[in-house]
């Protein structure tokens, strides 16, 4: 079996086997770019390694030895040769990039003899010793599991003894001392001397990379990003080039476009006289890439050309690592760059305009879920901000929260529902669980490509990094900036689009869609087959939905209109009425109010369909709480309060108790209310139709759809349909105005789905209420399950997703398919939509497309997400 490939043997489309990094190094090699030669040990070898109980698969080691010979032949150097040693880097590379999650070893192949050869070859002993100590440190840390601080402490002490502040001030002899000390650490910590044999070093390093696939942070990262544990990682062994050989050397990372805004400009940073890890680790704050143009114009030109070439080749924005050795450019990595949602949109639209990709491809380039934060609030540009510090704008969006200095604490507080900003000098992959739970991240060191920045952009979280003005004191859990001290728990705000950091909470405003965003959504509209409507209960929501591109309203929940302060007492009167006459009096007072609501909503949606659902929730939701009433009654009794009031409250309590149910969600709600109190539904229907008449008279085209909730049986709908139709006829007769309307039902109980064929006979449309349909199909209370047990169901992989978030295709979805089929077999042009929360969730939207629904309906802010997801479902 072939476990090892040379770069020449690979291609970009072999990511599953060679990992992302290896496949792209192979691709770059084969298109003739300057890539130091290397070999790749496959992900299959990694998976086999785990099958064999963490042992290399048979034959792998021999193949590695063979392939190393090809590297020796290409470079004229030899592994372990004291005169002209071959040195390599060893890096992990999974099929899906997991930045910083896995381990890397540089300068492998150095030992007490080869370091002399390196010194001679480079003509620089200081450089060689510096490489050696880096290697010992990384090998000790990554391969042997010795804590990095143990090495760091020796170095710091030695620098103090030598009276220097910076690493680059140490001489060759001083580095040699560090090297000797590091070897002692390794011997002390492991009980064995540092392995001098390069082959042994290599196999130890490969072993460590394979092992790192299952380290804690990699596991967390995969979980957060829903990456399969079974992919495995490849190992890249590549000939070293040195960015730390002097001032004509350097190393850097760059994006071919701005990953934050999407602007078409080279964007990145580099360090002169440094080795790869220095940039990504965020330890020294690097120079912006534009400076390279002045410092090394030729290299810059070549680099810029290479970037353009790679973009054209991959037809995507690239994230590139490079090293300059003695004025010569080497490419060490390229991959599709992570970007913010804003950048993803701009890049996709620009690339269509540049003729690089098609509209369909552009639509597929943007992750609908990532649009979320673009559609959310940002800092109001008109408020005066008290900015106390400014860092780099690493990931846009604004956030406020309590300052926390520790990832564990951020995780804990976040899980408790508190808003926190994680403040660190720099973040490392070990902080990932805290970042997940934080609203935003603030770091005092590191550039735009530091770990914190990359991870935050990937997650769509606001991040300000390299905010050097703040000095963090972890011991006292505070940071200082100027004369100001900010303590743990104090509230700050950060703006990841500008880099500003402010004290306290700042006011935020609603988002607007950029021109590129609008363009992309227009292309999505051209592609998609599914309609997109919004759930809206007020004229303002309806207007917002329309602005975001909604093609109608899929659900107006009329109960929300009953909750308003001035209406609740009248609604209570209606519920508590002892006689029909009393009830009608209350309804007569509600009628004009409802009419006004419907008038506003229908008008905002002129020309588009509006589904209005008649009253749905259990009535006790409108009544005062029994326990609170008891307290009030007892107080009145004890204090000898007003007797009349006491009597009234006691009467109220009796009614509340009489209406209380053990299972209100399965109780007297939905159309059951209409069956028992037809006058309530008649009032609502009248309010709708009177509003319609006014609008018709104004010349406004309206399309009302009257919807009956929680139906289980054709007879229910037939009965209530008659109530609605009779009301419509009355209104037409009274006003002399004729109008069109339809009557339909929600499908939100399994029986309704099972009997959809019968129900369709009396319905003009169906709308899946998948919140209730999920609740009733799974038998999970939608109000209790999530807090009580559902999280564990997902955690323990009993269910893949929370079924209230991601539609349960297997169960609920099956019912939906049956209902659509049965309904359309009776009425081929039956209009079918969905208005449960799933209507705004991309994978559920895909299912709705596949099931042949006419539209999805979701909250106004999710309308753009749904437009894009519906197009992606079609492509
Ligand atoms: C549903 O059940 O999915 C629905 C949209 O109705 P509600 O959430 O109001 O019960
Ligand atoms: Mg419902």
TrEMBL record:
InterPro entries: ATP_grasp_subdomain_1, PEP-util_enz_mobile_dom, PEP_util_AS, PEP_util_C, PEP_util_CS, Phosphohistidine_dom_sf, PPDK_AMP/ATP-bd, Pyruvate_phosphate_dikinase
Pfam families recorded: PEP-utilizers, PEP-utilizers_C, PPDK_N
EC number assigned by the record: 2.7.9.1
Annotated Mg(2+) binding sites: 748, 772
The keyword Kinase belongs to this UniProt entry's keyword annotation: yes
Keyword Transcription regulation: no
Annotated ranges, domain PEP-utilising enzyme C-terminal: 514-874
Active-site feature positions: 451, 835
Keyword terms of this UniProt record: ATP-binding, Kinase, Magnesium, Metal-binding, Nucleotide-binding, Pyruvate, Transferase
Residues annotated to bind substrate: 557, 613, 748, 769-772
Domain Pyruvate phosphate dikinase AMP/ATP-binding: 53-295, 302-353
Domain of life: Bacteria
GO molecular-function term, one example from the UniProt record: metal ion binding
UniProt record similarity statement: Belongs to the PEP-utilizing enzyme family.
NCBIfam families for this protein: PRK05878.1, pyru_phos_dikin
Official protein name in the record: Pyruvate, phosphate dikinase
Source organism (scientific name): Desulfoscipio geothermicus DSM 3669
